[in-house]
Amino acid sequence: MGSSSTSAKDNVTKRQPHRREQILDAAMELFHQKGYHGTGMDEIGDAAGITGPGVYRHFESKEQILAVGVRAKVTDALERSRAIVETTDSPELALDGLISNFVDGLLDSRALSAVLMRERHALAPTTRRWVDRAERLHVEEWVHVLSQLRTDLSDGEARMMVHAALWMCLSVTYYESGIDPKREGEVLKRMVRAALLCAAPRS
């Protein structure tokens, strides 16, 4: 009896992370399609294959679902960028790595990337401040690399160009292009690289 009970508990424990991921994925798709305020917990539960009240076994509120999803996305982007910069000796290879990582991550989690942009206002103030700070640190990793390749740019110019290039990519989450995802990624990567390495206008 004890062995059977332990086995059942182990199975439930193993399902917990998977179920949380299902809920997060379902919620982000709904937030993307209907907006944060237009989505209810029952809808999230239905989309995740569980009853609405069942969602509360994993998350306290819709606000927490949004916060957990956004924090995970921003943390992953920052950690991957840092790893690329710290382990790549060539600034040119580091830039290529940053571009590929950002574009691939954007297209792999298109709904979450869109939610991060559109629903930021729905985050609790403390979470919003955390996200803002993490995104600034992420941008600085890019600025550090770009400044080594573009000695003609001031820090302010490099930072502005990084912001512009990243938002150029993020804008594609506002619509479905209908382009093959692999092709779309290739085009975006070339565009970002061209934008960051273009010649600066003469004063």
Note down, in words, how this protein is organized:
The chain is an all-alpha fold and 203 residues long. It has two domains: 1-59, Arc Repressor Mutant, subunit A (Orthogonal Bundle); 61-203, Tetracycline Repressor, domain 2 (Orthogonal Bundle). 77% of the residues lie in helices and 0% in strands. It has helices at 2-34, 41-48, 52-55, 62-87, 91-108, 110-118, 125-149, 155-170, 181-197. The chain is elongated, with a radius of gyration of 20 Å. The model is unreliable at 1-14 (pLDDT under 50).
In terms of topology, how is this protein built?
Layout: H1 2-34, H2 41-48, H3 52-55, H4 62-87, H5 91-108, H6 110-118, H7 125-149, H8 155-170, H9 181-197
Mean pLDDT: 89
SSE order, as H and E? HHHHHHHHH
Q: CATH superfamily of the largest domain, please?
A: Tetracycline Repressor, domain 2
Helix-strand category: mainly alpha
**Termini gap:** 81 Å
User: Total number of helical segments?
Assistant: 9
Count of folded domains: 2
Q: Determine the fraction of residues in helical runs and give it as a percent range.
A: over 70%
The biggest beta sheet reads:
none
| Strand tally | 0
Summarize the structure.
The chain is 77% helix and 0% strand. The protein has nine helices and no strands.
What tags apply to this protein structure?
Tetracycline Repressor, domain 2; Arc Repressor Mutant, subunit A; mainly alpha; disordered N terminus; 0% strand; 203 residues; 9 helices; single chain
